[in-house]
Design goal:
The protein is of the alpha/beta class and 348 residues long. It has two domains: 13-142 and 315-345, Medium-chain alcohol dehydrogenases, catalytic domain (Quinone Oxidoreductase, Chain A, domain 1); 145-282, Rossmann fold (3-Layer(aba) Sandwich), CATH 3.40.50.720. The protein contains twelve helices and 15 strands. It has helices spanning 3-12, 14-21, 63-70, 136-139, 143-156, 173-184, 198-203, 217-224, 241-248, 271-275, 290-310, 326-334, and strands spanning 22-28, 37-43, 51-60, 86-94, 106-110, 119-123, 127-129, 164-167, 188-192, 208-210, 230-235, 249-257, 279-282, 317-322, 341-345. Strands 3, 4, 5, 6, 7, 14 and 15 form a seven-stranded mixed sheet that branches. Helix 8 runs parallel beside helix 9. The radius of gyration is 21 Å and the shape is globular. The two termini are 30 Å apart. It binds NADP nicotinamide-adenine-dinucleotide phosphate. NADP nicotinamide-adenine-dinucleotide phosphate is lined by residues 62-64, 144-145, 148, 169, 171-174, 193-194, 197, 212, 236-237, 258-259, 261-262, 283-285, 333, 336, 338.
Length: 348
């Protein structure tokens, strides 16, 4: 490098200039498998007046990242095209209207995108304070799955004390959060999961764990509930679970669908939906308005933050990968090997 840029860089320092204009971020070369992920410079986002810019220390994987990488899940309008729905890190710049945070504060929270990067911006009201003594890698495991589980159980599913809830994929990120929140809500919790993950679900408070690979979960649920069935089901699996779900729901039961990991088609009979007055509800978190997500974050903090601090409720961190190993981390999640969250460490 020669000329005026050489003089400029030598005076102010290369790191300063890089931070000001560009950062490193994981990007997708062409839609496809995990080999498409690569690390390269990307413009550093500038905070809007009500936003903070966070130096990201850790982010976490979500199935949505895999779908986005494959080209099946475009980011919502206005969101960063970079993958990553949650972060933990340190406030490094604040917009002119920000009142809650100062530079240097440690925070974590949900994003509509942009987490797989050195810097990310978020609305100041989406950020939560990092509990004292917490690693960033632990805090990055909280936002997406706990807010999804809280939304599904409380806002959408209307779970009440003494009801029985069935959580499918109980050892997933969402499942491990939902077990703990549902217990705090006073419910009896049944989960389905592969048997190697049952001990984790039971340790987190689940009352019963069912191995869905050993036959239809329907019979086991009927046996465990003495034929009564359940009040609420939270299901990210879909496919042929749908028919069984309809059968095991009690009168006035609710089915909250989060995803269709086993497929989106069913030939279930619909009569029982009418006769048992069932409610079939679908929900997503990412497509919700910022206002909705802020209210959800606030209500979640009021409900569970103290329990997170006291460790009565704990995020489950399964594996921490250096972000240079992002492809390995994606392959691990895609192979259904994880139980709880898979984290990417960006800054030591
Ligand atoms: N709607 C929303 O707002 C929202 C928000 C967050 C996540 N989600 C969705 O919820 C799902 C779970 O997310 P997550 O991050 O918690 O996932 P995760 O941690 O990656 O866990 C997924 C687990 O589900 C089980 N599973 C996978 N395919 C299955 C199948 N065909 N039948 C039965 N079980 C299967 C596997 O565990 P086993 O070993 O037990 O089989 C797998 O490890 C994803 O599809 C995600 O996209 C939706």
């Amino acid at each position: 490098m020669t000329g005026p840029w050489y003089v400029f860089y030598s005076c102010v320092g290369v790191n300063f200039v890089t931070t000001l204009f560009t950062m490193l971020a994981i990007q997708v070369k062409d839609y496809g498998n995990a080999d498409q992920l690569y690390l390269a410079p990307f413009p550093t986002p500038a905070p809007e007046p009500w936003e903070i810019r966070v130096q990201v220390h850790a982010t976490a994987l979500n199935r949505a990242d895999i779908l986005q990488r494959e080209g099946h899940y475009p980011p919502p309008e206005g969101a960063s095209p970079i993958l990553g729905l949650e972060i933990a890190g340190v406030v490094e710049a604040v917009g002119s209207e920000v009142t809650r945070w100062e530079i240097g504060d440690a925070v974590f929270g949900l994003l509509p995108g942009g987490g797989y990067a050195e810097y990310a911006v978020m609305h100041e009201d989406m950020a939560m304070p990092l509990p004292e003594g917490w690693e960033f890698t632990k805090a990055a495991a909280v936002p997406e799955v706990f807010l999804t589980a809280f939304q599904a159980l409380r806002w959408v599913g209307n779970l009440r004390k003494d009801e029985t809830v069935l959580l499918h994929a109980g050892a997933s990120g969402v499942g491990t959060a939902a077990i703990q929140l549902a217990k705090k809500m006073g419910a009896t919790v049944l989960v389905t999961a592969s048997s190697g993950k049952h001990a984790l679900c039971l340790d987190l408070g689940a009352d019963h764990a069912i191995d869905y690979r050993k036959g239809p979960f329907l019979e086991k649920v009927e046996e465990l509930t003495e034929g009564k069935g359940v009040n609420l089901i939270v299901d990210p699996v879909g496919g042929d679970y749908f028919d069984q779900n309809i059968k095991v729901l009690q009168r006035d039961g609710r089915l909250v669908m989060l995803a269709v990991m086993a497929g989106g088609k069913t030939s279930a009979s619909i009569g029982p939906i009418v006769f048992k007055r069932l409610q079939i509800l679908g929900t997503t978190l990412r497509s919700r308005t910022p206002d909705y997500q802020i209210r959800l974050t606030r209500e979640f903090v009021a409900f569970a933050y103290d329990d997170l601090v006291s460790q009565a409720i704990c995020p489950v961190v399964d594996e921490v990968y250096h972000w240079h190993d992002v492809a390995k981390a994606h392959r691990y999640m895609e192979a259904n090997l994880s139980a709880g969250k898979v984290i990417l460490q960006i800054k030591e």
